[in-house]
What does this fold into?
Amino acid sequence: MLNLQIPHATTISALRTRVRGWREERLSVGFVPTMGALHQGHLALVQLAKAQCDRVVASIFVNPAQFAPGEDFEAYPRTVIEDSAHLAEARCDLIYLPGTEVIYPEGFATSISMTGPALGLESDARPHFFNGVATVVAKLLGQVRPDIAVFGEKDYQQLLVIRQLARDLDLGVEILAGETVRERDGLALSSRNAYLTAPERQRAGQLNVILKQFAAALAAGQTVAQARQIALEACQAGFDAVDYVDVRCTRSLAPLPEGRLETPARVLAAVRLGKTRLIDNCAASPS
It folds into this structure.
């Protein structure tokens, strides 16, 4: 029996019993899905949901469907006791802790296939990823049935994929975006930052600096092609490997013409330091 600091549910029936009680009291419900190993970025999402709704559910489930063979599924940090304490401080009302058998019961045979904003960028490096994310998020939203769900802007492509999913499947939930929470040097908070060695951590903050410079160059009138190349070279010099550095349409993540930026955009990057993969993004505006 887990000794958690706030109420929790491990089954769909227990979850729905609690949510049904809130509904009978005419209370609104917010939802923050996580994979645990919580940090201040996650808690900011809970606080945003709390500001919008009467009650908030946070789930913790490390989703095997979004990990490819050789990725860090087994090593991914699992800290549910500590996470419970953090969620209690953030005034979360319920933790949902489904096991794999609840999300993917015996005989489970369905997978959601995403295109649109799921194409390119993360999909080029991790082609399995968004189908796994979309499937588990659809399951969780169907189980919790919230009024709103909150996702972080750090995973900007994922945010747009989830919004597309909710629209396309008429899920009846509003998807809200939470701003990226950062360390003092600009490094976006991430559970995987725990993998960084001390020397790698000193280098990691440069990613946000490079993206800000990329956005500033576009705003100053540099062409997309020129600004991207400079940002790519900076990432190649500063990190062990680069998966992508690019600028895309803010709303659709469609590729943009190579000339001067003419519409609101998002600059995005994924790089590697040792065994750690870092992703980040920031807004970019035309001159």
Observations:
- The mean pLDDT is 96.
- The chain is about 40% helix and 20% strand.
- The two ends are 58 Å apart (CA to CA).
